[in-house]
Amino acid sequence: MDSSTACVSFIGIVDFTEDATWVYCSESVYDLLGYEPHELIGTPSLNLVHPDEFSEVKELHYTTISQDQAAVLAYLRMKHKDPYKGYILCGISRTVCQNVLVGSVSFAAPGPKAMHNASTAQEVKIITPTAKDLEFRRWNDPNPMPPCPIPSSRSHSPDIRRRDRKEAITFDPLPEQSIRTALILDRFSVNCGILYCSNDSLISTTACMGRSFFDFVSRKDEDLVRSWIDVIKSWGVNERGQPSDGGFGFGKFSLLVRGRDSSIRHADPVPSRHRSGPSSGHDHLSRTRDARPSHHHASSGSSYRDRERDRERYRESRESRTGTRPRSDDERVVDAIFSAHSDGLMVILRPSSS
């Protein structure tokens, strides 16, 4: 295995058929497996699985979908295009997103990163016997995101047989599962532009493509979500400081269905010149990184309020013209799973149950 292969992960999306056909592959698939994305899209992903593991991987594909699972990590072998490189041990993350299965594929090797990835997954499945050393779970940790109720219509009962590739389970394409939407974001930009949206269930695909992810995060939650993404990016770095995979992060925030213009940000209040007591230190720490130093005289309070009022009027006018001003019925609380990969960030959203 050359050193460059161990540094990458790619984002992959497959459908619900028994072949798990590739729907999407990010560019880094070439660095890991030697294929260009167009060579894989439309072909069965199970074609890349090691023959000794084919039946178990196919059963895992069925189980993951039928049980509506999220943040599942599996270790198995996948074929490199170069026959001299043979099969590569990979860590594959998988989450059901309504009508597709999304996740990432990365080179698997023992070490702190493997422990971190496994410890943040909701379930770990070891398929390649030699990968037992990669299994690591924290004891007695609660599930960070309780599972969705499994839809009641379950008419598919596969004939489960093992060992022989020719006798692997068979099943018809499975029905859609609980509402989830997967977004792929540009990890190399501050605004995290949306590069891909898996469906229209939570936000419109045509309305969100190319826009900042934070256009769809409520203003009150923006700083919090930005801090989460900063953490995920820091996790998704390998030992050389290069972009890589980095486990799962979980959170909850308010999603704006119609979006807004997140480039318009409120200026932070200018702290009073007459501070006293221990609260002054807290006030200083609460200022955000976007605050700019201001030089005000003690009598400038009214002028500051005037400027704030003017900014608010401008923001309302601009949002009104662009149609991005959110209404109460356009905002919904969602659970989110965040993960970092070599060439993108993955965000999986679902309506929150609480």
Automatic annotation (TrEMBL):
Span list, region Disordered: 264-330
Top-rank lineage group of the source organism: Eukaryota
Gene3D superfamilies: PAS domain
InterPro entries on file: PAS, PAS-like_dom_sf, PAS_fold_3
Sequence ranges of Basic and acidic residues compositional bias: 281-293, 304-330
Protein name: Uncharacterized protein
